[in-house]
Design goal:
Elements: E1 5-10, H1 21-29, E2 33-35, H2 46-58, E3 65-71, H3 78-85, E4 89-95, H4 112-121, E5 126-127, H5 136-142, H6 146-154, E6 159-160, H7 162-165, E7 177-181, H8 187-195, E8 199-202, H9 214-225
Parallel strand pairs: 1-2, 1-3, 3-4, 4-7, 7-8
Antiparallel strand pairs: 5-6
């Protein structure tokens, strides 16, 4: 039987909670309690309201210890998520994700060229829908299942640029952290995680590999979260 561990799966603020739906389903089939908060529609300060959404979503998980999992741009939230969970926090897992910002902004973590490109793409303070300019072939590679791809894209909305430019406080984390890498784009983050002494695992795939192979990703989360 699984240990008394629950998982909270946090999606990037540029996409939607469907990111984690297949993995959440597999975890539940294996007997784990799971929460998948939605970060959509929050006001500024975004980081604070995103943390509140995560904490609210976890309120119904009972008394289990919680493993907090974040994908992509949600990574910098994890120290604050762990702080919000208090003694219930068991660990943090970064999945193809940005690392904590040391009190800075997400955009300051990005390569200069990409940061400039991101800022220039905004109109009236809003970033375009994630992947709006991508050709269909790229989307098909990321999410081969047509129905799942359509549902994922239906959740995408323009996001405030301020999500990436606002400073995010960093709280000390007293729980173990781990890193699960999918794509080459996060090579430097995985290396930095290893340098921090974190357990690092790689599953070769695209940035949305949890939508392609949820069973393998679930296995990795259980292993990294100490819930096997």
């Amino acid at each position: 039987m699984p240990l008394m561990v629950a998982f909270v799966l946090v999606h990037s603020p540029l996409v939607g909670p469907l990111t984690w739906a297949p993995v959440a389903a597999v975890l539940r089939e294996r007997g784990y309690a799971v929460a998948v908060p939605s970060l959509a529609g929050c006001a500024a300060p975004y980081w604070r309201n995103h943390i509140a959404r995560v904490a609210d979503a976890a309120a119904d998980l009972g008394d289990e210890q919680i493993v907090a999992v974040a994908h992509s741009g949600a990574g910098p939230l994890l120290p604050l998520v762990a702080q919000a969970f208090g003694t219930r926090a068991r660990g943090c897992i970064y999945v193809d994700a940005m690392l904590p910002t040391a009190g800075g902004s997400r955009i300051a973590q990005l390569p200069p060229g990409f940061a400039t490109e991101l800022a220039v793409s905004a109109s009236d303070g809003l970033l375009p829908r994630w992947g709006a300019a991508w050709p269909p072939r790229l989307w098909e590679q990321l999410i081969p299942d047509a129905a799942l791809r359509q549902a994922f894209r239906a959740e995408l909305e323009p996001a405030p640029l301020a999500i990436y430019t606002e400073p995010i406080p960093e709280s000390p984390v007293a729980v173990p952290s781990a890193y699960l890498q999918f794509s080459e784009a996060y090579d430097s983050d995985a290396v930095a995680a290893a340098e921090r002494g974190w357990l690092v695992r790689r599953i070769d795939g695209g940035h949305l590999h949890m939508l392609v192979e949820p069973w393998d990703v679930t296995d990795a989360l259980i292993e990294l979260g100490g819930g096997a």
